[in-house]
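Memo to structure team: turn this sequence into structure tokens by end of day. - J.P.
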Amino acid sequence: MKNILAADIGGTHSRFAHFGAEEKGNLSLIEIKWFNTADAGSFGQLIDALRSAEMSLRPQDADIVVIALAGPVEHGTKSSPPLISWDIDLSTAERDFGFRDSVLINDFVAQAFACISAAGRSADRVLAGQPAQEAALAVIGAGTGLGHAALMPDGKGGFTALPSEAGHSNFSFVSEREYEYQEFLLKERGEHYITGNTVVSGGGLSYIHQFLTGEKLPPAEVAGKFSKHPETLEWAARFYGRACRNFALQTLALGGLYIAGGVAAKSPELVFHRAFGTEFRSSDTLPALIGKIPVYLIRDENSGLWGAAEYGIRKLRSK
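Reply from structure team:
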């Protein structure tokens, strides 16, 4: 059996997991440790915290260490994540951290591989469809920001993940009332355009609620008041549906679109709301195509770890 140390490092939490991988590639989750990302002043300090936590698998004993990070990755070794105060460089990881083998991947590359892992197989169906065989899958997820990736069959029985930083691109608003909301966000944030990271994220819930009610609340409290403020829920669901539809069309995700991330996992009513489905299926030009794409919700908040481990076992098997 191979031992994989998987990590999913986001702007809020850093998760580590020990997975065992059988010869056939079946993964078993052995242990998980969670840390607050902001508590570490560097990646090295985060690894020191992991060692101090006495996990069942020491980093130096792993057959491979797969680090999934919320940010663009260069050469599988380096990243300067936009929502974390420190950089990662694994180019000398064996010397610096004792890793025998390691790779750095974008966190939504991990989420893409999670779609074909146990986490993806247990996903809830949000919208029915007719998934095509040997077609692209897309994954999108709101958390601290809005992550995106696609998973493409490689024609050889495997897959290639396509990372994306689409959350940093402009979000589209489509009505007078929404244009008023856009102006509100521009003033609040002092920016010259509004991104998907701002609109469809935990912070986005707070902004929507503030615009509609005048009340400033943290995201968790906004979600806890959805029953008392149905308009906040409706707006958030509509925006999430629009972001999902746009990415499904951009990637031609005829194999299905998966929703990951902590926002929907904690508040599934966002994607099961009528406004989500109506917005997702809305297309003046390709209604038949968008109508065939099924949508799934991955509720497992450790799906990024499953995806990182899935990536790791495939990398080990390719050697």
